[in-house]
Amino acid sequence: MLAFDSRAARVVWTVLLILLAVGCIYLIRKTLLIFILAILLSALMGPIANFVDRFHNRRIPRPLLLAVMYMALLGGVGTGIFLIGSRVVEEAGVLAVTIPKYAQDPQLLNSIPMPWWLEEYRPKILNFVREQFRTHAEGLMGTVTNVGKDLLSALTNIVFVVLIPILSFFFLKDSKEISYVVAAQFPDGSTRAFVEEVMSDVHKALVEFMRAMMLLCLATFLFFLAALGMMGVPYALLLSALAAISELVPVAGPLTAGLTIMAVATFAGYPYLGLVLLFLGGYRLFLDYALTPYLMGQGVELPPLAIIFGVLAGEQIGGILGMFLSIPALATLRILYVRYRKELVIST
Q1: How far apart, in whole angstroms, are the C-alpha atoms of residue 24 and residue 236?
Q2: Distance between CA atoms of 244 and 220, rounded to whole angstroms?
Q3: pLDDT, tens only, 274-322
Q4: Whose CA is closest to 213, among 252, 250, 238, 239?
Q5: Which of 323, 321, 257 is nearest to 284 (CA)?
Q6: Nearest CA-CA partner of 210 in 32, 26, 30, 48
């Protein structure tokens, strides 16, 4: 007769509960994504709550003052994005029509610089490019047009325009109460203190990450718009917006944006490609070794290999959005690991 092993039963029960929890998370992943985006937006809007807590008088209720400032800021930012976005979509439509024409211009194609060892293959390469554009021109135009429509559709999506900002406001308004309720679920003593410290560290990391990402995007847009505009590169606004958005996706985003800018400048017949390449390389060095470390601070301290791994894994799990969320997810895991190690050192 087989004996009942209570320890093995507990292990099996724990494994089953973990699998059940993972399955539930997978089933409600879209809802969780909405709440995660709302939390990130509330972290970005954190200075509003700090300002209200510091300077509001008791004659005006805190939630009312917070709501007015929150709506004013979101309204201003949304209006700016819509105005710029409409012009970006317009340039994208023009580019979709004109690039195939550029590609069919023999004089332009013959003037594109190539390494000396490729010169003997220039006719074959140019014929291949012409054939590809002739075959896929209609698809290219449709793709660019659809991207613009999808962007406007996302901006007018009821979930992103209404639900996420509303949830973000509640997270912003009740952040202290939420933290207290979560910590209260754990027993007094070292366990509750550990949970409170982890929540505080994660909050600081998210705030630093969101502020840094928004400032990086804004700085990239302004730098690219000024530089490309002064150099006379065609479609400067569209390319600047592309470069700014690409900063939301580490590693892969800036690389894709740089290649796209060079390709557009080449096929638009811009004569000073070396100047554009010099700017792209110089700005990348400035961003990676000066601006990004300054903005990120110590809140999101991750090694480059971890970032690359997170980006690749995030793309497989959730596409572009997964690549963006991989950095805060890794930062949270790092905080949990560091705090756990400190607790082990203190307990020993």
Answers
A1: 46
A2: 5
A3: 888 899 999 988 887 888 777 765 556 677 777 778 777 877 777 777 7
A4: 250
A5: 257
A6: 48
